[in-house]
Prior knowledge:
three-stranded antiparallel sheet; Muramoyl-pentapeptide Carboxypeptidase, domain 1; 15% helix; 11 strands
Amino acid sequence: MSNLEDADGEFATKQLNLKEEFQVTVSPTNPVDYEQAVDPVLRLASQGAAVVELQKLLNQNGANLVVDGYFGRATETAVIKFQREHGQVADGVVGATTWAELRKVESDVYIVMPIYEYYAETPVWRYRYSNTPNLGQGWKKSGVGFYSFAKSQSGTIPIYQYSAQNPWRYQYSDTPNIEQGWFNEGVAFYAYKQQAPNTIPVYQHSAQNPWRFQYSTNPNIGGGWKNDGPAFYVLAAKPV
C-alpha cells in the first residue's frame, strides 16, 4: 500500500502546494477554477501569485516559461509576443486588456481535482483511482494519490478507466481500446501524455496472477510491483 496521507471529510477542502509555492484551495467533490482576484497591472520585476497565474496562462498559449512567480525578461518577451499576436499594444505591461484576452483564449485554465487511491487486499492486492472521496463498495482509501484535470486543458489527453472482473481490477490508459478482456468505462480524468512545465510523472506499476495495476508518483513502490514507466503526467502538486 502506498504511504499516502489520508484526506478526511467528504466536503473538506484541499490545498495544493505547488513547486513554485503557489497555493490554491480546491474541493474534493467539485473541481473549481483557481480563485480569481482583481487582476493587478504587471510588468518587468513584478512578482507573486498573480505572476504565477500569468505565466501559467502564457504557457497555455504556447509559451514555455518556468513558473516561478517572477516577471523576468523571458516572461516579458512572452507577454510582448502574446500582445502582438492578439493585436494589442506590445509594451510588455499586463493590464486589463491583456488579462481579458488571456482569459478569453483560455477561460478555464487549471481546473484540478484530487484523485484518491483505493485498495482491496483479498484475494490479492488491487488498486482503484477515483475523484470520489468516499467510494465504499469494499474499497479502502489510502488518501490522495495525485491531482489531475477535471476537464480537457490545452495539451492534455483523456485517461480512460478500464475494469476486469474476478476479482475486480482497474487499469488507466490514454488508449481508447486496450482489449485483452478489459472493459472501457469512459474517461476518468485528463492528464498530459508528455512531460510539460510544472508536471510530474505518474508511474504504472504492474503485478501478475491476475494482472493488476497501481499508479503512483513514486517510481519505486516495492512489494513485488514492476515499474512499467510513466503512464501520464499530472500537475506538480501535493496535499499539505
